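Honest question from a wet-lab person: if I give you the sequences of every part of a complex, can you actually get the arrangement of the whole thing, not just the pieces? Trying it with mine:
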Amino acid sequence: MDNIPVPRLYTGIKGKNIDKRMTRTEKISPLAPANLPDFPEITGVMLATAATGVKYQGRDDLLCVAFPDGATVAGLLTRSKTSSAPVDFCRRNLATGGKARALLVNAGNANAFTGKAGDVAMMSTVRALAKKIGCETHEIYISSTGVIGEVLDSEKITVHMDEITRMLSASGWPAAARAILTTDTFAKGAVRRTDIGGVPVKISGFAKGSGMIAPDMATMLAYVFTDADISQDILQSLLKEAADKSFNSITVDSDTSTSDTLLAFATGQAGNGRIKHAGDPALANFRMVFQDLLLDLAQQVVRDGEGASKFIEITVTGAEDDRAAKVIAMSIANSPLVKTAIAGEDANWGRIVMAVGKAGEAADRDRLEITIGGQKVTEYGMAVPGYDEAACTRHLKGREIVISVDVGVGGGAATVWTCDLTHGYIDINADYRS
Amino acid sequence: MDNIPVPRLYTGIKGKNIDKRMTRTEKISPLAPANLPDFPEITGVMLATAATGVKYQGRDDLLCVAFPDGATVAGLLTRSKTSSAPVDFCRRNLATGGKARALLVNAGNANAFTGKAGDVAMMSTVRALAKKIGCETHEIYISSTGVIGEVLDSEKITVHMDEITRMLSASGWPAAARAILTTDTFAKGAVRRTDIGGVPVKISGFAKGSGMIAPDMATMLAYVFTDADISQDILQSLLKEAADKSFNSITVDSDTSTSDTLLAFATGQAGNGRIKHAGDPALANFRMVFQDLLLDLAQQVVRDGEGASKFIEITVTGAEDDRAAKVIAMSIANSPLVKTAIAGEDANWGRIVMAVGKAGEAADRDRLEITIGGQKVTEYGMAVPGYDEAACTRHLKGREIVISVDVGVGGGAATVWTCDLTHGYIDINADYRS
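Yes, you can. This is the full assembly:
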């Protein structure tokens, strides 16, 4: 199906200008993939959406996903010191056994930075859902995304508990992927099929966010679902490993939200054999495909980065170790000067040299090699004599930019993904009052 | 005298688009101070400038400052791992006794990332100047600022050595402050008078830079001169202390240059008594005034931040210690979302909460207090009921923005200074091709 823009008509509280940007209407990002994938049913996963009117009119903004008894959950949550109440709740629940019976997500109000009143509002929705599902409150996972600093009116959500739990369906995926959006310009989803020890399993996921870049309104949320039979500790280990090379390797503007949440649910209905440990050879395919799916979702978030006109892949090799390579790659990816140079289609590799230098990790200035669009532009710590700058510029005029840097000291490597920094970013984040 | 714009006519090498931004002409920053100060003569400091034509036409771009035998020098240099040849040279010289007989600065070519050829070019100018002055090469301090990646044509500089050393004068200060500029929109200087143990001493300084934000072209350079009699180790200690609360407490866009240099020279001609150690009570006034002058220069650099329309002071209190407070303050100052909100005159304090959270230092979300323009807008981890948002917006419509944040965990405090992030920044750094 087509990625039609999500209506974002705002009807919030007068005078709260932190909400104004919700009124912006915007074209789909030029970097968007053509369509949402065709989501298959995943045995044990049931979904439904509803329209609460908390912020938006004319669209669903509440998602409920239910799981059978025995489903496991793993998760990674923002490391922000000002994390939201829902994030803290999920963190506590993950620590108490990792059984999940339901996920509830509302879009439009992050219920973050709202003190005790925010906790009370959240727990009232959690209790209402646990009662309908017939489970413990610690088996409920909850996310809220939207405005910071306004207490969520929980009645607007609890009033839909009866309806939404009655509507649960195995085919509610596209509506689910849309219901969680806020400032996104397109819905984000990915689907994979693989096997565990020869038994077919499916993995599907959806995400929201225009990067980790709009913590007052939009945040990064991602949910992955599989019918594999897989214990919490193994799922957590796979999720950590895959997230390091996907969601933790993307950046739009270096701003980390108070609500970032990545949850993976496994219903255990596929009938694969018992997996003994995270290194079990039966998991080889699953591990690879799981990571591929997470990377797909993460890259879709970058492709919806606020104001983005180019998708940028940055690979660093020759660093002291993989960690150092990632620090350097992120220093390049977060540099406003590198990002504006790429927006301007300017082969300004001096700024890449600068960003390598400021990263603080070991780099041999006199062995630094920079490659742009496959062409080496510097080696031995200086420009390659007579390199073809026109070819470099042609590459930068495209939408998919590939940069690699060898820092000449070791065997560490990492790849990260980002977007450029354009007038669109300033428009969205500074000018929306005008 | 008035701060007239510096002509920036570029005549560089065809096809090197990394130079294009030197062609931009630009109005003086709206945040600029009215005038350069009236520089007094400082006994022992002699200055001269010349026009080399390395990059610019119609303006002086080479500065020479000479000091008498016995002058001391202290310095702080960029921690970039890709630092320039001149930075490395100054670092070596500082480690070998800290005697200075001359400073040479050229604007238009940073002689950075130019391999061995860059070293050779630099040493040829150093030797030419040492011969004219009659000193050792390790008594020469050198800075180059401008384009990265082009070897400096040293002959264009050495040909002026005779002329520039003959022209040295005690009154050459305003010309000196102008000769070192690149993309700056105004010249930056500061002057103070104080005493050491009752003996009058003078301190003057000048700086260049539109922040640490344009490492291909402009970098932060600052030079401070005093007639005080003060040993290198004590001067270094004072400089480190003062820089931590001035140059190391400013940011424009978080990008650190390959050439950042701060040097302090003391001619020893004031006739003050011997200072025994950095804690000597006779230094109390000097220490205070020295720091005040460095802060003045550092704030002028922020006021010339690329595209800046607002000067922002951010104070963090209640942190675990002063270091943690500075990390949090810098996290706020470098957040693109905070900077764009202020550009948009939007009292979006949710973004400040986010920036505190992502800093990684201890903060008590439920005791967080944010004050904007003197008005407390959050306390107990949520909005102050009924705070006057109109007053907040009025404050943000001004040019001088004051924000303070108490994170509620300890006694650590720090203040940093930055500017907003505007379309002007994107214009300068991405759009100059068009």
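Two things worth pointing out. Confidence is low (pLDDT under 50) at residues 1-25, 213-218 of chain A. The radius of gyration of chain A is 22 Å.
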